[in-house]
Amino acid sequence: MKWVAFLGAILFACNTHASPLEFSSGTKQTVMVELYTSEGCSSCPPAEQFLNGFASNDQLWTRYVPLALHVGYWDYLGWPDRFAKPAHAQRQRAYARLHHSATIYTPAFFVNGESWRPGLLRQLPNPDTPTVGSLAVRVTGKMVEARFTGDNRDLKQLKLNIAVAGLGLKTRIQAGENAGRSSRHDFVLLGQTELEPAGPGHWQGQLPTTTGFHPDRYALVAWVTAPGSPAPIQATGGYLPKL
Fold this sequence. Notes:
Blueprint: H1 2-16, E1 21-24, E2 31-37, H2 44-52, E3 64-70, H3 86-98, E4 108-111, E5 114-116, E6 133-140, E7 143-150, E8 159-167, E9 169-172, E10 182-185, E11 188-194, E12 196-199, E13 202-206, E14 217-225, E15 232-240
Parallel strand pairs: 2-3
Antiparallel strand pairs: 1-6, 2-4, 4-5, 6-7, 7-13, 8-11, 8-14, 9-10, 12-13, 14-15
């Protein structure tokens, strides 16, 4: 029993002193690709397959940061999307207001806050982006610390969002427009939080919770925004260990 307790103490010490994970964007604006989608939308599977393709892109996390936000406004068609959250539709509506649009729909892509159509789902967003500043994120266990070095912006006014995404999530859809279809979802937003500022361009807090989901792999996505706008100024991301 003493030996078991000794091994337990060693494992606990290793876990609590695990090396931090570090993610950094560089100074050029990363291309953050948001897809608004739903398991109840018959035209969404091809768009999701397109987004899933970023998993094999050699510029994933260095130039491209993908994120799938499932919405629930098609649930009335007969299939409730288990990944949908009201906040996702609210974010899409914020984009609609920003672009003076009266409607929201799926599938809908936004690239760095601008509505975007990928052209027969074969065209990648233009990676040639302006220099905006660097976002660096450090994750130690469940704790997160981030810093943004901006381009003459008022750093005190900026907000930081931290999201945990899941890859390899599978669903057998049994009702609604996609009844009978087996779907695979990557980069699904499972949990999101806005960190409290610790100073201008500096934030500290905890990873959001993602209970109830069991993806093959987790990823972190972080982005900086200005007050009153959902559009990312800078973003970064990378894979996380099992949570």
